[in-house]
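The protein record quoted for completeness.
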Amino acid sequence: MTEHNLAIVVLAAGRGTRMKSATPKVLHRLGGRTLLGHVLSQAEALGTPHVRVVVRHERDRVVESLADYPGARAVDQDEVPGTGRAAQLGVADLPADFAGDVLVLSGDVPLLEAATFRALLDEHRRREAAATILGAELAQPEGYGRVIRGADGLVERIVEQKDATAEELAVTEINSGVYVFRAAALRQALAEVGTDNAQGEMYLTDVVRILRGAGDVVAAVAAPDALAALGVNDRVQLAEATRILNERVIRRWQLEGVTVEDPRSTWIDDTATLAPDVTLLPNTHILGATTVAGGAIIGPDTSLRDAEVGQGATVRRSDVTLAVIGENATVGPWAYLRAGAELAAGAKAGTFVEIKNSTVGEGSKVPHLSYVGDATIGSGVNLGAGAITANYDDVLKHRTVIGDQVHTGSHTVMIAPVRLGDGAKTGAGAVIRKDVPAGALALSVSPQRNLVGWVEKNRAGTAAADAARRSRASEKATDGQQEQDG
């Protein structure tokens, strides 16, 4: 449902110096999305057509990230610093006749959910408030601005820690930096906010003081999860937010019927999708846009990124990226499926097998010690140990095509471009440079030559030469004894 009476302004202009990073703070990632991406995904769930993201530091990179959120529009912050100025510019970019509510969010608070925003909006509208603040109760509120309420429970002001009295410092409700305002009240109050302070900035918190001075109602709602309301300012807080999000995601999937044997060693991105009756074994990572169908068993020691796993498939101790694993297929242990690898139903990629940009047909097997690149493999195929599709000629990649029911001997090398017809076979150690007709046996065999005495002649004085000399002497003595006995 579209919420036409709501606009959202996301503050994402800050430098984030405490991250000590070349990456803008709001573009640091957790759970498959950027910090800003988490905020925008929840903002989208509210259904408003008016989403503005105020940007400045590393402006182009942040704007580029908005491509995944087509409903969001960037607004540039000018030379005037401060959250108040950012909010002012965001509101100015809304339609001139917009008279609804403005939800102001921080681009570095990734764990708040749409349900919390809806509860904030409901309380704001119920009280007919000019502004409503999302607060959070912290046992140790040091470092945060305090929400100071009056006897009627309404907000009187927000005071920063450095400006707070001893009595105010005892308050445990902190300001999360999330607000909802009536648009007209916000516009009017922001026009009165100045920069006459130690930082020379326009503070959004000054709006609360101005509204209360005008006799307007300012309410507050406590976040149901205080930790979720805290921002990410450094790598320590980023890691903690990542842990909290992962615990939340795992619990969600467990309640949906997914077995997670060891939640402490399992990571599931918020962007992944799992079906009921999936089993995740210890030390498994389900990343990106990965989807896993019911009955699949993943792990242990497995990483899937942007992969698709079919019903009843098994993936053990393997790394899979941008690959498709079909129904009841098996992968691993120690397999590596790269971009474009696609296993059909019942196919197998076994131990120490690497596959990229290739399709493996139904019921076909690449059991062990093989590299398959740029190949099309039919159904019922069995590639012997050490099979290689040599796809690169130092300039271009070429394709190998293997028909149905083909069996290759151990250590077959197929020099692409080459085609093996249906039912063809190869001998062990074959090097296939030409197409193999259907039903043919391909051999590349030269007669074996034994150069007797070569080691003693060419490697004289080595341990191998000494061993060979002793063995030959022993053989001569045995031959001589047999002649005497005969």
